[in-house]
Amino acid sequence: MAGSGTGRESKPGTTTTRRRLLAATGAATTVGLAGCLGGRDGAVPAPAVTDDRIEEDWRLVDETSGTILETEVGPITVRALEHTTIHEHVGMAEAIAETFEAEGSPVVFFATRVDLRPGVDRLPLGIGRDRVMSQVRTAADDAFRSQLRDAGLEDVERTGESTIEVETGHEATQYTYRGSFPLSTEIEAAGGTTQPVSGSVEMEGRVAVWHDGTDVLLAGGAYPVERITAAMDEALPERAPDADTLVENETLAADPTAFEEDVGALIVAVE
Length: 271
Fold this sequence. Notes:
The protein is an alpha+beta fold. The protein has one domain (9-268). 23% of the residues lie in helices and 37% in strands. Strands 1-2-3-4-8-7-6-5 form an 8-stranded antiparallel beta sheet, with helices on both faces. The radius of gyration is 20 Å and the shape is elongated.
């Protein structure tokens, strides 16, 4: 099937080119990301996150909604619509900005709702739930790899696949990934000059895909698996005059399991 995206909109003041889940998928896989029993009219609702920490510790950095595909399937015109929200961890983003004078955060979370109109149950050619969900899992794997790279991760590899249960009781397929997040800064050197220091933080990402009876939902995120201060300390020269600067940042020195727990809790709370 061939088609092209139309009608995509983004909230003013946000960047829509980074960490975009669906941009990496082609027309055929976009169809695969659609709701199996669609019948809704009007705008696709934003995916909801019922865990309170999304309001307390995270901020919305990007939101898109619109038609991402319009194509012909036999005699039927198929439209795939999405609503995606992308969040970053506020404390981590502020710590990165203060320490490295960089924008963004290595701790990110996203949720996507995709609705196919008409629903797959009304399409010709024998397209059914099993085939659609197989396409969803493949598309989610490919797209999330691309999204992690767009977010700044390098050497992204899928490391596992499992099944989890989300809070609504639905079963989701979850993929895990590993990669690295490069960081760089400068320290004072002899003679009043500065010396660049570059390090790399080990990262993990995960994305879950499930069908809630109406739509397909995707939720995922990325987080460090080591303290950022420890990773940067390894890159610092032994006698750097301000070698302790990064260690003094509480967020960058935080136990990374806290970010892993946050992302995991948010994933299962999407509906």
